[in-house]
Design a protein that fits this description.
Layout: H1 2-25, H2 30-47, H3 64-73, H4 82-86, H5 90-102
């Protein structure tokens, strides 16, 4: 009886660890996301495609659900700079999403780019 309880507890801990790790992989790095987001527009500005190096959308321009919908559909036209967005790796896009989502208008810490 005690062996079954110990085995069940260990199995539950293993499952929770695996599920937690899988969920954590979907989260990017907010700090990297902020850096990459700004770097995209700096490169776009240097190429002459936009008038300013400042990103056109602040993180608080949308709610978390709106950011999720935009990134789930992979429709980045609202951002402009299609050439630069097309060159981003999946990890960089995930980092940008994490930054924007974490500071959306309905998040605990809404943020505007400065």
């Amino acid at each position: 009886m005690i062996r079954k309880m110990i085995f069940s507890a260990m199995a539950a801990m293993f499952v929770l660890t695996v599920v937690g790790s899988a969920l954590a992989m979907d989260q990017g790095n907010k700090r990297k996301g902020k850096y990459v987001y700004r770097k995209v527009y700096k490169a776009c500005h240097e190429r002459g495609a936009v008038d300013t190096a400042k990103p056109p959308l602040n993180p608080d321009a949308r709610t978390q659900a709106e950011w999720e919908a935009m990134f789930d559909s992979r429709d980045y036209k609202a951002f402009g700079c299609e050439d630069e967005w097309g060159q981003l790796s999946d990890a960089e896009v995930t980092d940008i999403f994490t930054y924007l989502h974490a500071h959306a208008s309905d998040s605990p810490t809404p943020l505007k780019c400065k």
